[in-house]
Amino acid sequence: MSTAVDTRPVHDEAEDEQILDAIRKWLERDVKPHVLELEHKDEYPQKMVEQMMELGLFGASISADYGGLGLSATTYAKIVTTISEVWMSLTGIFNSHLIMAAAVQRFGTEEQKRKWLPKFATGEIRGGLALTEPDCGTDLQAIRTRAVRQGDHYVINGTKTWISNGIKGSCYALLVKTDPEAQPRHKGMSMFLAPKGPGFRVSRKLEKLGYKGIDSAELIFEDYKVPAENLIGGVEGRGFHNAVGGLELGRINVAARGVGIANAALKESVAYSQIRKTMGKPICQHQAIQLKLGDMATRCEAARLLVEQAARAYDKGERCDMEAGMAKLFASEAAVENSMEAMRIHGGYGYSKEFNIERYYRDAPLMCIGEGTNEMQRIIIARQLVERNPV
Ligand SMILES: Cc1cc2nc3c(=O)[nH]c(=O)nc-3n(C[C@H](O)[C@H](O)[C@H](O)COP(=O)(O)OP(=O)(O)OC[C@H]3O[C@@H](n4cnc5c(N)ncnc54)[C@H](O)[C@@H]3O)c2cc1C
Questions:
Q1: 297 Cβ neighbours under 8 A, 6+ residues apart
Q2: Whose Cα sits closest to atom 7 in ligand 1?
Q3: How is domain 13-122 classified at the architecture level of CATH?
Q4: Which fold has domain 246-388?
């Protein structure tokens, strides 16, 4: 039986600070010195992944009842922002994993929670979310990956693409069609926990503009057999609901990454503009640069406040698709604008691979695409505005 209980942890400011402090120290000591090298080699940060396991990050939002840290969305968003200020890619390694875990925690049966969540929380089993296919991303109801029941298991055929952690992960929350003829289409969709095994292969690693270090892959399922007990919630037809049910938190997370990139671009610009001199004075004394810094700082603050507002609403169990959509839209665009402005402020050095700025510029646009494109966020916000303000 499905137990869609949504236990939202309470936000504790003092506890937040302790966790953030440990993370900041780890970032300074073990991450910052290695980012440029790993980024440019596009190398998986294996050692950092092990350190993130020790820090408990793979169980950050998993309930303490199942071995996780049970952090609130508010605290989690702060962690994501803090890490993204140093290397946004790292957050993708535990974030898509935690969205898979959230699908089990929110919609799984008690047996599924007890079997999977403790191993997700330690990072012993890591993975992500497999929704997108080569010919559909936004229109998820158009997926074609098919699962057919045969006795006590399902046989799955299809292709998923752009799957974060697709190579290094070992298990995915896999969205499929169990009834391709169903109307409305979402009633024919189901979600499985799909561990790697016979019939499940990675066909290729996808090369990207940014978001280096983390593996994005195409996954192929050919007569892949999965036990019926891996059907999340134990009932067919709830897959679409399971997938979109995680989107509010997913959008808050992407927004938090956007704040991290926007902040990093600002901080480096404030520092650099005091050191770099032209016409006999630091460039921060030129009004043209001050106008940029003023706008950048304002975007950072506004984005941070929108993320906090959405996370607080989420923690209270309130409907927050509009708030999460606004946070995601604004913070991701802030990341894009701030990284471009940081590049202008840094002049030629902004374009150099020996500095961080060009990385922010390559990483930021992904925030506008993932977890629902910004075009879709505007539509969601507008629909909610009308729904909440009937005439
Ligand atoms: C680096 C990276 C990592 C990713 N990780 C994952 C992952 O782990 N798991 C996963 O499942 N997916 C993942 N994705 C896929 C991502 O979620 C999709 O790319 C995204 O949802 C957009 O889908 P699409 O690329 O198919 O674009 P499309 O859906 O084809 O959209 C194309 C354009 O049309 C617009 N559009 C579409 N429909 C409408 C509409 N109704 N109204 C107005 N405009 C519309 C879109 O906004 C966009 O501008 C990842 C993608 C990238 C690039």
A1: 266
A2: 163
A3: Orthogonal Bundle (1.10)
A4: Butyryl-CoA Dehydrogenase, subunit A; domain 3 (1.20.140)
Span 127-239: which CATH code? Answer: 2.40.110.10
At residue 99, the pLDDT reads: 95
pLDDT of 181-210, one tens digit each? 999 999 999 999 999 999 999 999 999 999
The pLDDT value recorded for residue 9 is 67
The closest-lying atom of ligand 1 relative to the alpha carbon of residue 138 is 29
* Residue among 147, 146, 148, 145 nearest 161 (CA): 145
Atom 37 (ligand 1) nearest CA: 138
Q: Tens digits of per-residue pLDDT, 244-303?
A: 988 899 999 999 999 999 999 999 999 999 999 999 999 999 999 999 999 999 999 999
User: Is residue 371 flagged as an active site residue?
Assistant: yes
Secondary-structure breakdown of the chain: helix, strand, coil percentages, each rounded to the nearest 5? 60, 15, 25
Pocket around ligand 1 at a 6 A CB cut-off = 96, 128-132, 136-138, 162-164, 208, 211, 216, 366, 369-370, 373, 375-376, 379
**With pLDDT > 70 as the criterion, what percentage of the chain qualifies?**
97
Pick from 138, 164, 143: which is nearest to 372 by CA?
138
Catalytic hit among 111, 371, 375, 387: 371
Task: Name the closest-CA residue to atom 23, ligand 1.
Answer: 137
Every domain of the chain and the residues it spans: 13-122, 127-239, 246-388
